[in-house]
Predict the 3D structure of the following.
Amino acid sequence: MTWDFLLGQFATQFGLWWVIVPGILIGIVVGALPGFSAQNTLIMLLPLTLAVPVPTALAFMIALYCATHLAGGIPAILVKIPGTGGAAATTIDGYPMTQKGQAQQALVLCFTASVFGGLISTLVTIGLLPWLSKIGLYLRSVEMVVVMLFGLTLIAVVAAKDLLKGLIAGFFGLLIGVIGTDHIYNTPRATFGFLELYDGVPLVPALIGLFAISEALVMIESKLIVSKEGQGRASHAHWADTVEGLRMAASRWWHIVWTSFVGLFIGIVPGAGASIAAFVAYQQSRMWSKHPQRYGTGIPEGVIAPESANNGVTSGTLVPMMALGVPGGSTAAVMMIVLQYHGMVMGPRLFDTHPEIAYGVFISMAVAYIFMIFTILPLARYMSRIVLIGTSYLVPVIVLMTIVAAFAGRQYQFDMALALVFGVIGYIAHKTDYHVTAILIGVILGPLFEEYLVRSLRISEGDLAILFSSPTANTLWALLVASLALPLVRAWLKQRAG
Amino acid sequence: MSSNETPGSKAPLGADLVIPALALAFAAYFFVSISDLAWEAKANGMLIGGVLLLLIAAQLARVGLRLWAGTADFGFDRLLRPREALAKRIGMVALTALFIFSMDWLGLTLALFLATVAALVLMGVRKPAQLFWTSFGVAVFAYVMFIVVLDAAFPRGPVEVFIARLLS
């Protein structure tokens, strides 16, 4: 790979602006609407992508895919409804910023962290692709158990104010996540007799219920979602607020860099996704912060960490597909179908036979991110105005439209009713301080944790010692213990000093 | 002391027991449903459910101690306040349930239009033009997005059938 080759590829990709920009715009709409996903949209558009040349199809698919990851944060920040699972962690600090009248700054932080997080991880991927592709081989089920535990420790983090309530919520969510057939024998567990639950609790209705419906039911109490102090700021949103958001992001550039690496490394592991990456990045960001108690009150780092990580995932997900022929996620699987239709054989040989495709995918991603910042950044000022719409209009629209969106994923009317049930549970949890985020973390990570744990235990015939059987796993265990112990040590030192 | 408490008043902790009660009921059902399964199928659930039961016991003990000390009662005020929003809240849940079940007969578009009108009225919107145009916009958006673009398998009602005949 020479500089001439790279520059030529960048020039080619910039020439495809006419498919990248529509891809970004469709991706923003898809990402911002709960219930819609990049893979569903790409499947719908499959006839189109199969009909055009490979580089054009790839540029379109990748622009759309990256934009969905970015746009999931928009409703998460504005109305506490994550557009995708990867944006659920963004609500923790993004929505409080909106309530303080800083919606525009929060959106700019989200866009900047997403774009630069995605861009940095993509450039690193281009440079280190042969080595990165091997990471997936070292992270097996044993190591993934520890990675899942990194995410699960966030339950304790979000529950910092009342640990017992937070843990009850988190373990309740984990138990809900175990609903469905088991991974070995496919026997149903706690499905209440519903066939619709055999595949487990679907994420979209859970997300919509726990966040959108429950939040809308709480919104009923006030006329606007912003506080009285925030109303003035929100109604006089200026370009200066966009600049302030950019300044906030620039002064935290290192935060964007390292949380994007968290996303990249988690994205490389097939099956792991943006939700895990965002939760792990948020948890790590809080753990290593000098002021962890401010997380959850609406601070920039709390928006940057999950957004940078969930976009860092985008390039990581494609690494195993290009290097090993194993799609890292469902969207990557759809892309693989398109590439295989055009006669491309994924795997190590692709780098010799079609380097313009193997590296072109990532160069296309980098170009898409560059286009994205110019497309979406100016919109932050206008998007932030949504918070000035009265709740008498917002609540009916949010409740009914998100209930309809709950149907979109699996096309079951059952999922709409399930979203309503989760909405009521979420409302009760919200009003009694049981942390809906902790429940959601359990629902998302519970099935994955079980899958990796049972797979490991099957290998060892039930011996738990397998979890400490590899150098990589042991290193991860040490990091996990260190990240849990650090805040305690820091608090002890602070107490001793003062 | 929670933010809802005022000095001298008893904390209404009945609401704090709703989630543990739901979790307890679900854990009990879960244990019954997995009792006959192989260890691989129930190991994770047993582990999580076991920890959950311990946590619930700790929460019950915490609430019990406060009741014993006379600083709390079984009130549900945290869930029910503010009272003026309660009717709207219950109405919104009931209306949403009605919308889901009426879709089978009315189809997505008409059911959504009527549900939006009813929800706006429930929230206090009274101006006919605002009621109509907001509901119309929501219904048209849903029709275009879900029926036309996505061709989702929503129940088809009179509106969808009429438009389909008109265009065929």
Q: What stands out?
A: The CA atoms of residues 118 and 311 of chain A lie 5 Å apart. Chain A touches chain B through 63 residues (CB under 8 Å).
